[in-house]
User: Fold this.
Amino acid sequence: MSWSQSVGSKSKTLGCLSPGNLLVSWLVTPGNYKRWTSQAKGPLEEEIVQLMVDHGIRDRSQRYVYDKIRNLKRSYMSAREYLMQQGQLTRFIEHKASQNVEKKAQRRCSYFRELSVLFECNGEVDAPQDESSGELHHNGGQRFYQCQKD
Assistant:
């Protein structure tokens, strides 16, 4: 079953949040990714499964949530590596990449833009950073992200 569509909830056809959208929304909520990386996974998986149940998605397990978060990170890294190799990371984030690059990156990670601040600002990837401002820079020092400091 597709992560972006749930048979039990018919989320795609009803315009509701899909399991993937709910998971990404949970991850990018301030403080949640830090919790995910620093706390026991079981209670957090239960929290996410309950969030899905609250939205009518009853066919997801804790193990499924764990695997999908791991897969989201892998797919993000794959898309990021592709964009870096193409010299298009900043252009992609700014919606200025070619249609071909856009399609190939989205195929690797459809949630790339939503996850990029999360992974870039939480030390998940190597990126030059201006320590005084918290801004991450790529491609000749262009502003890339403004990271919030805890």
Observations:
- The chain has a mean pLDDT of 80.
- The chain has one domain: 11-146.
- The longest helix spans residues 62-85.
- The chain has eight helices and three strands.
